[in-house]
What does this fold into?
Amino acid sequence: IFWDGKNQLLNVELNFINYAASLIARGTIVRVLLEHMYSVKAILVGYGWGNTQELLISSFTREAFYQINTGNRVHFHTHNELFEHILSVGIFGTILYVLYNFFILKKAFILAGIFPYLWLLYFLLCTVWFQFINSMPLMALATATLIKQGDYENVKNSIKTNNAKFISLSIIFGTIFIFLLGGGTISALTNKNTERWGADAIIALATNSKPGECSSSISDYGRGQHYLAQNLNRYTQYLKVQIDLDKKIVETDVMVMKWYLCAADEVINSGKATIELINQDINTISYLSIDKASSHIKEDVGYELEDFRSNYFNIWEQRLRMLLDLAPKRSDQFTPYIAILLDMNQKSRIKNICLFIREKGYEQPYCDLAEAAIYIEEGAFDKAVKLIEDAEKRGAFEKKISLREGVVGADEDLVKILREFVKTHKETNINRE
It folds into this structure.
């Protein structure tokens, strides 16, 4: 939990080291998510169930991403029941949860027999697998088995003498039940819609869907399309594997990707998209924009990026700005876009987007390097040297840099050239003085 991130635990065969890596990853998730507990509302009532993923994605600084992925994939939750309650339902909800555990175990021990140990086993399993919220109805039924005959008679007599209170409680719990039933129904319908995610079904959707209706048949009733984000990620990874293995991209591959992007556009434009979907949309278009992917697809089926998404370049920037408004720490997502701008010699656009990032209070080392390249071309060497030095201070020249595709090494030859340029320019200035 208190790991500084300096010593990596990758590619180690020993099991206990792997377990330690898992502990580090989950502990880092806890540390990262605790940074979101800065408001009175979050502390008291939490963020609600199921928001762990959104908060994690919005917190993916390069360092956090690197630590969380040490030997593991990024997990949906921490496997820590107590912390999940603090994050999801706040201090008040967590206190109620702890009290519930305490009185259930106390009651079970009064009854003795095997009950206490069954409950203890259940709560331990909840802590490891985070099943508490999924099994609350079953827990209510099981809790009822702990009521003794005498207790039951007392409850019945109490109801008779406190009709008004009983009716009020019945209305409250009846309302809660209706909301739970509604949520369960929406979840069941959403799960039914996700049956369409098989390969044949997706090709059929891509074939039959019309613009403006791409997402209608996979509706999740305004909950942000978590499933769409997950499956867009999987499909992007599928294309990456095909391209890395130098396998041919076929017409249906492109058709399905166009459908995914169309569906993502509709949900994002509706204003109901999760941060996860916006982030994945950016990931996908960033990957399709790299030369290896775009040239491979162009060679196989003759498609340009504009064939996937018309006006994609402006939409790409729009999505990046949208993401930074929702998740200010995600300035890392601008790097591929700035690289493309630099390749296209879009100097003014680079300066505008880098100004936007800095106005949000975050520095982007790649902005420093991109603007330095512009100043070198313009002959403004003093400004270029200052930006290169700033980029190095912010870690742009580190040997290991964590990107979405994994941990990669910086180009050492380029680093040497840049450092030599800075050194030579400074020495020249000293000699002139």
Notes: The longest strand covers residues 400-403. Residues 1-6, 8-14 have pLDDT under 50 and may be disordered.
